[in-house]
Design goal:
The chain has about 100 residues and is mainly alpha-helical. About 55% of the residues lie in helices and about 0% in strands. The chain has a domain at about 40-100. The chain is extended and about 60 Å long.
Length: about 100
């Protein structure tokens, strides 16, 4: 089995401990509410295109997420990268160009 070959362990919570899936379940509930309910796609390609546009254009770039301090995922990631870059440039060890002996 691939899991054992690569040392991957499935995350399976016990009954009554649903926190592992909270983010995924929240996403799918939002997806169903905002996109799926009331739609009638005639082909899988129509549904696939609508899903792609919802996730890549709306959900990741525009829609604010309460778990991300009411920012879009793209905005939040950019903000985090800027913080990491700022911390990296402030670190004295990263300013050293070369060490002479």
């Amino acid at each position: 089995m691939l899991r054992s070959e690569y040392g991957v362990e499935c995350s399976m919570s016990r009954k009554g401990h649903c926190w592992d899936n909270a983010v995924a379940e929240s996403f799918f509930a939002t997806l169903k509410t905002e996109l799926v309910h009331g739609e009638d796609w005639h082909t899988r390609d129509e549904a696939r295109a609508a899903l792609f546009e919802y996730i890549e254009v709306w959900y990741n770039r525009v829609r604010w997420q309460s778990t991300l301090a009411y920012k879009s995922p793209v905005h939040y990631e950019l903000e985090q990268m800027q913080k990491v870059k700022a911390a990296y440039t402030r670190c004295p060890l990263n300013r050293v160009k070369s060490i002479s002996l």
